[in-house]
Design a protein that fits this description.
The chain is mainly beta and about 180 residues long. It has one domain (about 20-180). It has one helix and 13 strands. An eight-stranded antiparallel sheet has the order 1-2-3-6-9-10-11-12, with no helix packed on it. Strands 8-7-13 form a three-stranded antiparallel sheet, with no helix packed on it. It has a two-stranded parallel sheet with strand order 4-5.
Length: about 180
C-alpha cells in the first residue's frame, strides 16, 4: 500500500511539474494610478519572458461593460502600459513576435478577444496608436471555475506547449503559443 501511495504521489508531482512554467515575481509596486503592479518572469521553452503589468481589482464592476469594454481597445491591466519582453521569438497563431519588448493591449468580447501587440513602448496604458501595431492574435474565451477579483496574466505549460492566460472576473482569455 505504501509503495502504491508513493507511486501515485510521484505521478502527481511529475504532472504538476509539467503543467506550470517556471515563474518568478521579480518586482511588486504601486502603479501611478493606484493599482498594484507586478513584473513576472517566466522560463518556458528555452525563452525568458517578462511581463510587467498593473493588476486592478474588479471591485464589483463588470468586465465587458464597466471595465475592459467589449469591442474597444483595452490597456490589458491598469495604469502604465503592460509590457512583454522576450529573448526569443514567439508565435501566437500566425503572429510572429521577434525577440524584444512590446506593449500588450486587448480587444475584449463576449465570445472571443484579440491580443494586440504594439511596437510602441514606455507610454501610459491608454495611449494607443494602431499604426504602431506589430499585429493581432485571437484569444479564446473560457469561463473560470472560480471568479478572479484581481486581474492576472499567467503562462502555463503542459506537455511542452505554453499557453497565455488573462483572467478577470469569470473570464479567461487564452491562447497557446510557440517559442522560436
Amino acid at each position: 500500500m505504501f509503495v502504491r501511495s508513493m507511486k501515485i504521489a510521484g505521478a502527481v508531482l511529475a504532472l504538476a511539474a509539467t503543467t506550470a512554467a517556471a515563474q518568478k515575481v521579480v518586482a511588486t509596486k504601486m502603479g501611478g494610478g493606484g493599482s498594484p503592479h507586478e513584473t513576472v518572469e517566466y522560463s518556458v521553452g528555452g525563452a525568458k519572458i517578462t511581463i510587467s503589468y498593473g493588476r486592478p481589482f474588479l471591485k464589483a464592476r463588470k468586465v465587458l461593460s464597466e471595465v475592459a469594454p467589449a469591442g474597444k481597445i483595452w490597456r490589458t491591466g491598469a495604469d502604465e502600459a503592460t509590457t512583454l519582453t522576450t529573448d526569443k521569438g514567439l508565435m501566437f497563431g500566425s503572429l510572429m513576435i521577434p525577440a524584444g519588448t512590446y506593449t500588450l493591449y486587448t480587444v475584449p468580447g463576449p465570445t472571443s478577444w484579440k491580443l494586440v501587440v504594439s511596437k510602441q513602448t514606455g507610454q501610459w496604458g491608454t495611449e494607443y496608436s494602431e499604426d504602431k501595431d506589430l499585429g493581432r492574435a485571437d484569444l479564446k474565451v473560457e469561463t473560470l471555475p472560480k471568479p478572479a477579483d484581481q486581474f492576472t496574466i499567467g503562462i502555463v505549460e503542459a506537455n511542452g506547449s505554453p499557453t497565455l492566460n488573462l483572467d478577470w472576473g469569470t473570464t479567461r482569455a487564452t491562447t497557446p503559443f510557440m517559442v522560436h
